[in-house]
Amino acid sequence: MMGEFIKNFEELLVDYSEPERKLREDMLSSAEEAIRAVQPGELLRRKLKLRGKILTVGDIKVRLADFDEVVILGAGKAVHTMCRYVEQLLGDKITRGIIIVPHNVANVYTTSSKIKVRGGGHPVPDREGYEAAKELVEVAQSTGPKSLALVLISGGGSALMPLPAEPVTLEDKIEITRMLLKSGATIEEMNVVRKHLSMVKGGWLARYLSKAKTISLILSDVVGDKLEIIASGPTSPDPSTYADAISILKKYGIWDSSPSSVRTRLERGMNGEVPETPKPNDAAFLNVHNVIIGGCSDACNAAFYKLMKLGYNAIYLTHRLEGEARYVGQMLARFIADMRYKKTKRPILLVLGGETTVTVKGKGVGGRNQELALSVAIELDNLKGWACLAIGTDGLDGPTDAAGAITDCWTCDKGRKAGYDAKAFLEDNDSYTFLKKVSSLIFTGPTGTNVGDLIILGKL
Predict the structure, then answer these.
(1) Angle (CA) 343 347 352, round 5°
(2) Would residue 250 count as lying in a domain?
């Protein structure tokens, strides 16, 4: 269904003639197919089933009659859609619960009165998320041996569940989050730091739920689907240490400028003065089952098969793409440039997924997908017949209202004719402003899912 997720689908095809119009249309259609394939309801339908009084989660079978209550807990950008499916499946078997989602979702999401919906800040945490995290922990601590806890986790859970450990304050947590976001640190590195400043992440939620039977349903937005990294692993063992967190802050040159409480907490932890995050052999995990319901590979597969059906010579390269966004864009662009010498009967399109990073040095506004797409446009400025789509499956790219962008051989030229220099905007980390001026931004709004980024790149 054209335009199911991409709100400006038709606008992105205006002023294009064949075959460039068809190339853009097919890339956009494939991106929509990818987002559709990773909707939590679709993914949960494969993993979570109820037959009579037996709840099956993958290979795990649970007799609901063995429990006095079913408790729902969750945090993340896609948790509201996960929760909706669980509610439809279990209905009045659910006793109570609380989920934490972004404010723009919490304001419109309706659910049963048994599950409280709280809003929080993302990507930077806020006071509302802090209060919600405290309430979530209180519910977790109140569970017992006759409680079945279903924990719903997706990307974004780290920011949405801020519960800093002493002496770190919420304001200090906000400050270090902002510093990490600007530094170019990967999501894995960011979460190592955040786990060691938290009372809920890095396995601590599992500790609070240790008396209950806990099943975590996890939607992965992390390269490699590492349990301890997704939403900072609230119900997963944490192999990282305080020393690792300190090394990351020093690596990016922000240790000395970090809030003093952050440095105090990490140093005390490294010296053994405060407990480490729960490790793999901790008793807290004896009754915890972590189940990944889907990830970036599902989105990439869906896009790949859609492109094949549309008649392209599609190549699925990886769902583990990482690196600085602009340099990844340059690398991919050079790959495409080399392909112009290859003669094929069908156009070649590459499919990739993962999560790049942006080191913010300028004063502009943008996101990793926008920087990547603009970088490709600059690199391939003189090459005709290509296009690049880069989109966040959650519908949000950086601190902007765009999901990503689609660029092509005309992008930089459109800017030049209007008096805008693409390179200057990229150097100022202002990809959003340039791409908006040349009508290349993709807008979806929240998509209800979150499995990382999708890139489709190719030539006619």
Answers:
(1) 115
(2) no
β-bridge mates for residue 97, sequence order: 72, 115
Residue 41: CB partners within 8 Å, gap ≥ 6? 81, 84, 85
8 A C-beta contact, residue 403 and residue 426: no
As a whole number of angstroms, the distance between CA 424 and CA 441 comes to: 18
Q: Give the model confidence (pLDDT) of 265-286 as tens digits.
A: 999 999 999 999 999 999 999 9
**Does residue 99 share a domain with residue 16?**
no
pTM: 0.94
| Cα separation, 110 vs 458, whole angstroms | 41
Domain identity same for 30 and 101: no
Within this chain, do residues 73 and 219 fall inside the same structural domain, yes or no?
A: yes
- DSSP helix/strand/coil, 386: strand
Distance separating alpha carbons of residues 400 and 86, to the nearest angstrom: 31
Backbone angles phi, psi at 13, to 5 degrees: -110, -5
pLDDT of residue 339: 77
pLDDT at residue 111, as a whole number: 63
Q: Which residues of the chain have pLDDT under 50?
A: none
Find out whether 369 and 397 touch, Cβ atoms under 8 Å: yes
Residue at a domain's end among 250, 269, 294: 294
Alpha-carbon distance 220 to 233, whole Å?
Answer: 11
pLDDT at res. 340? 66
